[in-house]
Here is the input.
Amino acid sequence: MIRVVLPAHLKTLAAVGGEVHLDVADPVTTGAVLDALEARYPALGGTVRDRATGRRRPFIRFFAGEEDLSHSPDDATLPPAVATGAEPFCIVGAMAGG
Here is the structure.
């Protein structure tokens, strides 16, 4: 069971109140987690990654523990602590401006 933490605006869109729990088959990768998330919550399709290219949207970041996975390939295996559900996979809306 993978634990996913969403930013507030995506929680609202998905109509969830807390962490999302997903079943993801091995190998547990960023792409597999996002595929499972979009399959379970279709309203999130296109919000985290572009529908046409599959690339991460600007101002969206992915973290596993303290590791920034935003620029890692979608097929890179997630750390064991995330794959086992001990730590969450976090999707964060980045801030910009000055």
